Amino acid sequence: MFKKLREVFSRFIETASSLLSSREKLLESIEELKLNLVANDVAYEVAENIASELTMRVEEGSIKSREELVKALREILLSYFTGLNSIDLLSLANSKKPLKLVFLGVNGVGKTTTIAKVAVYMRENGLKPLMVAADTFRAGAQEQLKIHSERTGIPVFTGKYGSDPAALVYDAIQYGLNRGFNVFLIDTAGRMHVDVDLVNELKKIVRVAKPDVKILVVDALTGNDALEQARFFNEAVGVDCVVVTKVDAYEEGGVPLSLVYILKKPVLFIGVGQDYKDLKPFNPIEYVERILTGLQ
Prior knowledge:
Blueprint: H1 3-17, H2 23-38, H3 44-60, H4 66-79, H5 89-95, E1 99-104, H6 111-124, E2 129-133, H7 141-152, E3 156-157, H8 165-178, E4 183-187, H9 196-209, E5 213-219, H10 224-236, E6 241-245, H11 255-263, E7 267-271, E8 279-281, H12 284-291
Parallel strand pairs: 1-4, 1-5, 2-3, 2-4, 5-6, 6-7
Antiparallel strand pairs: 7-8
Helix pairs in contact: 1-2, 2-3, 3-4, 6-7, 8-9, 10-11
């Protein structure tokens, strides 16, 4: 997990440490770091910012040793995660009756599996979740949630393919409220070819559901495509937080960093396996320490 990004920082620290007495060569090393970060799914503007911050500190003389270099990197990386609006679903669930979550994301990123994982997480914490299959466009989308429902024992509300997804969401919420459900997890369409119809559909669902949290699901393995998807959904309907899936198989490491920098929204969970309990709350400090481990 995040192996390649860790190697990038490790190589940079080793090289830069031997160049600390040579300002020009150290600045060259920082430029090389920027290119290597981009090669490992760090968005160019993020890599540019990291390089600019390091360059400024070198020029002002605050980096004079290996320890100061590592400290500067840690401070820069952690700064991207500070000041973001934190989201605690359990606290929200205790204050909102019911809690409504809308899940966004293109097909194939693990959105329906993530919905099931979050539903299990909510149930294990004493809540009564209902999954809502509001993707009435893609063949098999509702069946996927039905399978998760059978495996987890968590109910799912479905409708007819081709029906109005916003109307289905409205019916699901009324159905759930009458039966004591207190968390609604709403799936939405995620056609790979994003278009005006999809945007209007999502906007209508958001108007009807009035969600407390809009959760974007992205696949870490798609790299920079995940960033483009994040931009699209944030511009279309707004994003409150992100779940990054398939992190257990992801070596590059730059996607979480890029997402928070670009969206200015927190990563809520990371998916680290196929089991329904393989959903881990994202810890920014742990993430930064993992990619800087052993550098001090």
